[in-house]
């Protein structure tokens, strides 16, 4: 069922977010605290934007289907990267021989040449039934680039298709609207196929300068009979954020310092520390947008009625 | 403090009201008394709970760490008050940091001894559960009041008539498959026969999204348990509206009024189409005050729900930019 993490703000070593905290993203792959019926063992991926790097508009990419906790390369790289924006993801799949663990299914999704990436925490129930009805809503050149078997990559193509220029750099508002439009299309296609069971769609969409995150579920609270994912999906899929000056180690623990105006934000499926007193829960059925500006970080949370 | 004095003190604690003297003597034996100086922190928010405390004299303050390096005092507790029971009941970390504000004498009750008080079928255990439910309801109301004040503005006129009309218009439906209900965390510990008794105690209704079932400021007429779908618990003040809880499968709403006889502290509106178990107030009273296996299970369900609601209201959440 996956865990996602996005960071936007002051340059911050990736290692601090992936490894150093007592509920870090890598730890959430094998010991998620807020989803204890499911593990995220089907691979890791990240995109990191560093303004001081070559071609700063292109994110640094790392993906591997191996377990991130045993991945020495990831650990070495994480200690050398200090991006201003990061999107990272640990993938969870059902314990079934039908699940495909492959490089092409790793998040964040990013078509070559596009400026937008997307990671997804959730799943669309009965996706195979609705997949090909999405084709008419996806630009043909984008549909052709779908390589994997996931619902998430289709959602990515759908979001890109809602942008005026899928390969351009959208304004934050356009990116947020494209994400909401994609969710509305999914709702309509689900309805057309008579799909009315719970399907969480926590998304993290980013350009490196802005992050749009959703905490939403279609038909929350409705499940097919004898459902394998019932216990995982009974609670609304979580999403949290920490907003402030900088994420730093203080008094032996990691926390977001206060900052007015704020300069950094972390958005994650779960707080990165067991002490979550400096974290805010993102409300259910909502969208968070964050953008780095000269004045600081602009942040908004709004109700998402899709 | 002698054992006799401890027993006499325990007899004045509201939580033990009506408890037999022999029980209190037994309880006094397992409690540990200590004096704690002003300024001492008894535990911090998130710490693993090991004991609850009864304040004999002096006072303590309970506060919440919130983002922005801030601490908010939630309340003060003085003689005959208690702190720390929520963590003991659900096993999660302490909800707040507790600090001594006036040098205090406290009696500590450990986790196992507290669990023993609540275990078993003795009427005194059920009485304690009911009093805990009342205590948690009062705390929940207090916390919701804090949240409402932070919003400013006036409470909207309660659309109680709307809620009554909605209730009359609800469409009856069949009970859920008990195998589905048993998979909900709320009912994992429920005895199968008692669960059947509980699930057949009320009626089932379907409700479309966007319907107000309970109005803040008006009395609730029933206990509602969500079987499918979701219901929002909201506070509305002026142009601001905040969600203080989302009641998904296995969670309940509408019962605070039925426990303490006061108006509902929140408005409950269906967010998704929903199937609900509806237990009218007279049946609720029977279940809440009964002594059979169904009532025992029901009291546990109420207690879990109140604790979850309290934790939700104590958890800082991002405010939505949109207004009502």
List keywords for this structure.
heterodimer, A: 306 residues, alpha+beta, Glutamine Phosphoribosylpyrophosphate, subunit 1, domain 1, seven-stranded antiparallel β-sheet, six-stranded antiparallel β-sheet, 21% helix, globular, B: 324 residues, Jelly Rolls, 2 domains, five-stranded antiparallel β-sheet, 11 helices, 15 strands, 37% helix, 29% strand
What does this structure look like?
The complex is a heterodimer of chains A (306) and B (324). Chain A has 306 residues and is an alpha+beta fold. Chain A has a single domain, classed as Glutamine Phosphoribosylpyrophosphate, subunit 1, domain 1, CATH 3.60.20. Chain A contains 8 helices and 15 strands. Chain A has a 7-stranded antiparallel sheet with strand order 3-2-4-1-12-9-13. In chain A, strands 5, 6, 7, 8, 14 and 15 form a 6-stranded antiparallel sheet that branches. The model of chain A has no long low-confidence stretch (mean pLDDT 94). Chain B has 324 residues and is an alpha+beta fold. Chain B has 2 domains: 3-119, Jelly Rolls, CATH 2.60.120; 135-314, Jelly Rolls, CATH 2.60.120. In chain B, helix 8 crosses helix 11 (293-314). The A-B interface holds A 219-223, 225, 230-231, 234-236, 241-244, 256-258, 274-286, 288, 300-303 and B 45-46, 64-70, 177, 180, 183-185, 226, 228-230, 243, 246, 248-250, 271-274, 315-322.
